[in-house]
Design goal:
Number of domains: 1
Strand order of the largest sheet: 1-2-3-5-4
Number of helices: 5
Order of helices and strands: HEHHHEEHEE
Radius of gyration: 19 Å
Helix content: 40-55%
Distance between the termini: 67 Å
Largest sheet: 5 strands, mixed, barrel
Strand content: 25-35%
Number of strands: 5
């Protein structure tokens, strides 16, 4: 009897773990303001005032980037940081750069599959 219970319990554990991993890897799309991590905490209430020139300063660029969407700060992964830097260097906006980010959330970081500037 125990020989039957142990494999069943192991199989159920694997199923539950797989479901938890799947839930964490759910694709998301966020639209918000692009900001460097150095300034993110201070500008979370109004990221639209953050200047492009500040985000491109050496210390700010080295800190990495984030997106503030729905009053939450989502740090970008390496791929997202590369895309953010490219957007900041090529945007016509002088402040309040808006982006749409696609990816998956892992804690407070978004693993970016695509990042694009929102131009209106």
């Amino acid at each position: 009897m125990i020989r039957k219970i142990i494999p069943f319990a192991l199989a159920m554990t694997v199923v539950v773990a797989a479901a938890a991993l799947y839930a964490q890897e759910k694709p998301v799309t966020l639209t918000g303001y692009l900001i460097d991590n150095n300034c993110a905490a201070g500008k979370a209430s109004d990221p639209s005032t953050h200047s492009t020139s500040c985000a491109l300063m050496d210390s700010c660029e080295k800190s990495g980037y984030a997106v503030i969407a729905d009053k939450k700060v989502y740090k970008l992964d390496d791929k997202g940081n590369d895309g953010a830097e490219d957007i900041l260097k090529n945007t016509k906006a002088t402040k309040g750069v808006r982006v749409t980010v696609e990816g998956t959330i892992d804690g407070d970081t978004i693993k970016v599959t695509k990042i694009t500037e929102v131009t209106e």
